[in-house]
Design goal:
mainly alpha, 4 helices
Amino acid sequence: MRPDVRLLLPRQAGEYRGARWAVVVLLLYNVVATGRSLVHVFLGDSGAGSIATIDVDVEGGSDVVALLGHWGGAQLSMAVLVWVVLARYRGLVPMMLAAAVLEALLRLLIGSMKPLETLGTPPGAAGTYAALVVCGVALVASLVPRAEVSPRP
C-alpha cells in the first residue's frame, strides 16, 4: 500500500492505522526529547557548557544559558503533547512524527544559517541527523494503513 497523507489528521484521533513499530519510534524519540528538555530547564548551565561544549564563560554566556533554558521549556511542552498522543490519541502519531521531522529539518537549516561555535561536537549534532532519518522512515510507515486482519474462527 501507499502512504495516505490524510492520516496526518485522521477523522478518528483515537484510531491509529499505521505500522506499530512507528509508535515505538515516537515513544523512544519522546523519551530522549523529554530528557533533553529537562536538562535544558533544570541543569545549572542548561547543558550549554557541560553537554553542548559552548563556552559560557564569556560575555553574554549567561544569556546563552537562559535562552537554552527557555528553549527547554518549549521542548517540554511539545514532549507533553507527544505523551498525550501516545496515551490517548494514537491516530495523531503521524502528525507528531511529522513535527519531529520538521524540527530536525529546521534545526539543520537554522544551524547552517546561524552556526554555533562550540569547543567540541555536541550530541545534538549527530542526533539531529539520526532523528531526521529514523523519524522520517517512521513517518512514512505511519502513513501506510495496515491491512485489517480478519478474526480467526
